Amino acid sequence: MEATPSQSSTRLPSSAVANPPPPRESAELFRLLVERVRDYAIFALDTTGHVLSWNEGAQRLKGWSASEIIGRHFSTFYPDYDIANGKPAYELKVAVHDGRFEDEGWRIRKDGSRMWANVIITALFDDDGVHVGFAKVTRDLTERRAAQERALAEARRATEAEVANRAKSEFLAVMSHELRTPLNAIGGYAELIAMGIGGTVTEQQQDYLSRIRASQQHLLGIITDLLNFSRIEAGQVAYDLGPVSAQGIIDGVMQLIGPQADAKRIALSSEPASPLLLVQADRQKAEQIVLNLMSNSIKFTPEGGSVRVRCTADGAFVCFAVEDSGIGVPVDKLAAIFEPFVQLGRTRTSQHEGTGLGLSISRDLARAMGGDVTVQSTPDAGSTFTLTLPLVV
């Protein structure tokens, strides 16, 4: 019966069947394999541990030539403390007893440098069971160990950073509570006194109370910024994302920012946005960002200047642009102003108060919602800070 194509395809022609090499040729191939392999140090020891043979890999890894090392004891490759502790003799003893010994540790090169090596010592016995020597194979694992140590160090640093962040967050949370309670009490009692609950208040005293309340609000603002920054860094901020009216965000901020603009006689204005313009955002956090941007603009705009907010659609995003006629930002400082605790031109006598966290917090919140905060500015001519959030279509 004729073979099918599939059957015939599995048959090899007789010329393709390799004849096994004769024993002498096999021994020569094995000898070349042992002598020429370069990634492993392979050498034979007599029963006392002295070197009988030395391959190219041993010369490359250890740095000794065969003529320099043959006849020397293999403990030459061990640190002094291992020799003092009898480690080489112990390894040979284990190899004879168990037939094999394996270990990883430091070994010495000819130039005195160390390498982390995997060492296998195999006891050799003849056909009558008589111990005739040892085969020793060494592999240089210095680079692998260094990589493992780097990975462990990185993991340790990451763990330490996580613990530190958690401790910082817990500290700031406790500090926030401990400081807010007396600050709120200060504000409350100042308000009661101003209302005349405890008796008539003079005009001078009203001025003092007003200053007390302003300082109290300033301190509360600093505490809130620190706590928000800590929560963002620790990834503890939750976002309630959904469709939000762009105009609703602006309206909410304009009600809050008015008194701050009035205090500096800043002309505050907004351009109405389409009532159908929606963004995908957490409304409270979107308002917080726009409020931060507008507060920042008012802070760095001289009295009598102007701040305007407008909202437009731009492709897949909605842009909230806060434009001011303030002092502006130098080109080489535009990126730095978004770094935590950075406030340009800040000195001990600076009139611009704050922690330098507002812009950093705003950008982090925006990016977490799929948007961003950017800036364009001309020194002494004003700045435009732009919040972008995803457009709801």
| Large-scale geometry | elongated
N-to-C CA distance: 73 Å
Tell me the total number of β-strands.
11
Element pattern in H and E = HHEHHHHEEEHHEHEEHEEHEE
Task: Give the total of domains.
Answer: 3
What is the CATH C level class of the largest domain, in words? Alpha Beta
CATH topology value of the largest domain: Heat Shock Protein 90
Strand order of the largest sheet: 6-8-9-11-10
Low-confidence stretches: 1-10, 12-17, 346-350
Fraction of residues in H or I helices: 40-55%
CATH architecture of the largest domain: 2-Layer Sandwich
Give a brief description:
The protein has helices spanning 5-9, 23-36, 56-62, 66-69, 80-84, 87-98, 142-194, 203-233, 246-263, 283-299, 358-368; strands at residues 41-45, 100-108, 114-125, 131-140, 242-245, 267-270, 278-281, 306-314, 317-324, 372-378, 382-390. It is α+β, with helices and mostly antiparallel strands and 393 residues long. The longest helix has 53 residues, at 142-194.
